[in-house]
């Protein structure tokens, strides 16, 4: 088996906050190989962005990796100095963050920002780099690139800025693309075009994709596997079809509110009553137990680890009962 492009082993991240030390990531493991497409879903605050930032070496100053390892193309990132690590990650991975305004440089034209890596890292001449940038602009749905090349970020709409950010992420020919809510600012037609481009890159050059999104329709369209995050951990891991049709963790079940007809799946995650736990306090038992429709006494005292359930993995003591959840909920009138 070839070395995965990215491998994360039992990663933990703590963040210093005004309320105390926050255990934001509590033992997360996964890997991304060429051509993989992984969706990460979960409520706001569950640790999705911090996980990606830890991998990319972009944690805020008050956050620290406190346990675990990150391997980039087989190299343990903790053995590299900052500069070497940055070089290795930037030749391996591209990233598109939710906040395209923050990601773009306000005083450099958007065309020049896309051309920068082709020109200065990939060694293209000025005119080659310009041509590369124009091609990327076209690929992300900006047809009048010549006219927009010299504009500054503030002169473009949110949707256009987001597309520029995607073009910049692709300008280094990454082997893996990390996308954190990348298409939320795009209208559906452009979103479809961007997703089509990513799928083509995946098919033609084995681009690995890690996609954080609230949009289940997007996960359904472009991801093979899904990881569901809750309170700093993955609580369910599985294939997209298995997870959408037969969730084995009650949190996933509640997020999906499984439509009777899987084709009619709501495209957004469902909101669940109650709140996620405060991770500045010790976690006693399953962190989802207070909000869970299937919790038993044991759930309040020990925290379940991921274990195999049919084709998936689930961190729930009751996951073997997943087939009966719908019936039980209907009976209790919760559905
Ligand atoms: N810079 C920061 N300072 C303090 N707390 C932070 C910071 N960034 C994230 N957090 C906290 O870390 C937890 C995980 O955040 P995040 O990974 O951004 O969640 P998600 O992306 O899943 O919405 C949240 O409780 C969030 O409030
Ligand atoms: Mg986030």
Write the layout of secondary structure elements.
Layout: E1 6-17, E2 20-32, E3 37-41, H1 48-56, E4 63-72, E5 75-76, H2 82-92, E6 93-96, H3 100-103, H4 110-120, H5 126-139, H6 145-148, H7 158-170, E7 176-180, H8 188-205, E8 208-212, H9 216-222, E9 225-230, E10 233-239, H10 240-245, H11 250-256, E11 307-309, E12 312-314, H12 325-332
Parallel strand pairs: 3-8, 3-9, 6-7, 7-8
Antiparallel strand pairs: 1-2, 1-4, 4-5, 9-10, 10-12, 11-12
Observed structural traits:
alpha/beta; globular; binds adenosine-5'-diphosphate; binds magnesium ion; 335 residues; 33% helix; Oligopep_ABC_C; Rossmann fold
Q: Can you walk me through this structure?
A:
This protein has 335 residues and is an alpha/beta fold. The chain folds into two domains: 6-223, P-loop containing nucleotide triphosphate hydrolases (Rossmann fold), CATH 3.40.50.300; 226-332, no CATH class. The protein has twelve helices and twelve strands. The model has no long low-confidence stretch (mean pLDDT 90). Adenosine-5'-diphosphate is lined by residues 15, 17, 22, 24, 42, 44-50, 60, 62. It is found in: Cell membrane. One of its GO terms (molecular function) is ATP hydrolysis activity. InterPro entries: AAA+_ATPase, ABC_Ni/Peptide_Import, ABC_transporter-like_ATP-bd, Oligopep_ABC_C, P-loop_NTPase. Residues 6-256 form the ABC transporter domain.
Biggest sheet strand line-up: 6-7-8-3-9-10-12-11
Catalogue the ligands.
Answer: adenosine-5'-diphosphate, magnesium ion
Supply the CATH class of the largest domain: Alpha Beta
Number of separate helices? 12
Low-confidence parts, pLDDT < 50 over ≥5 residues? Answer: none
Q: Which value, in Å, is the CA radius of gyration?
A: 21 Å
Q: What CATH architecture of the largest domain would you give? A: 3-Layer(aba) Sandwich
What is the total domain count?
2
Terminus-to-terminus distance: 45 Å
The description of the largest β-sheet is: 8 strands, mixed
Mean pLDDT: 90
GO molecular function, one term: ATP binding
Membrane topology: Peripheral membrane protein
Main location: membrane
Subcellular location: Cell membrane
